[in-house]
Write a structure and sequence with these properties.
With 188 residues, this protein is α/β, with parallel strands linked by helices. It has five helices and seven strands, in the order E-E-E-H-E-H-E-H-H-E-E-H. Strand 1 and strand 2 form a beta hairpin.
């Protein structure tokens, strides 16, 4: 029978000249994203940035690295998310120990992308905290919950896209019908 082993990382400490040990602050970043440029989304974007800046700066165990924020960008892939890519590059360079984000859907709406980035960062000892879902990727149960919830976020994104396309088609058909009533095709 296989045994579960939980690895507890050593606390990072620094030593003063007098030999006194002091805890090293975690290098913390936040990731914020809104998917549209609409007014209420922009307000949400600004609130996220302000909230995470204040939250990280007030915590004596944290050292704020940066707030990475993509505005008006879809979370279904990472190609156009410049701030997200910059954050991942900073993680790879060792500048970040912890990422805090509002929810899985803010981080990524593509299950495969989400899990790949989470696993890569976890291997480097970088945790991601998803506040809404109360998930810390360094917890053993974190990846199972993350897999399920990121799949739901991806499905929600697909559903929103389908509903938007249906609405556009519906408006087009309605506009076309009104035009045909106003200007009926002539009899040949």
């Amino acid at each position: 029978m296989a045994r579960n082993i939980t690895v507890i990382p050593a606390k990072q400490t620094m030593t003063t000249e007098s030999g006194q040990q002091i805890a090293k602050k975690k290098k913390v970043a936040a990731y914020c994203r809104v998917s549209t440029d609409q007014e209420e989304q922009l307000s949400s974007y600004e609130n996220q940035v302000r909230y995470y800046t204040e939250m990280i700066e007030k915590n004596p165990e944290y050292d704020l690295v940066d707030i990475y924020a993509d505005e008006g960008i879809s979370g279904t892939n990472t190609k156009k998310r410049e701030e997200f890519k910059r954050m991942i590059d900073d993680c790879r360079a060792g500048r970040i120990d912890l990422i805090i984000t509002k929810s899985i859907s803010r981080f990524a709406r593509n299950t495969l992308d989400c899990l790949n980035y989470v696993r890569e960062l976890k291997e480097k000892g970088i945790a991601i905290i998803f506040e809404k879902e109360n998930i810390n990727t360094m917890d053993a149960k974190g990846e199972v919950l993350l897999t399920i919830l990121s799949s739901l976020a991806q499905d929600e994104s697909r559903s929103i896209s389908e509903n938007s396309a249906w609405g556009i088609r519906r408006r087009f058909v309605g506009d076309l019908s009104r035009e045909l009533i106003r200007f009926p095709p002539s009899d040949f």
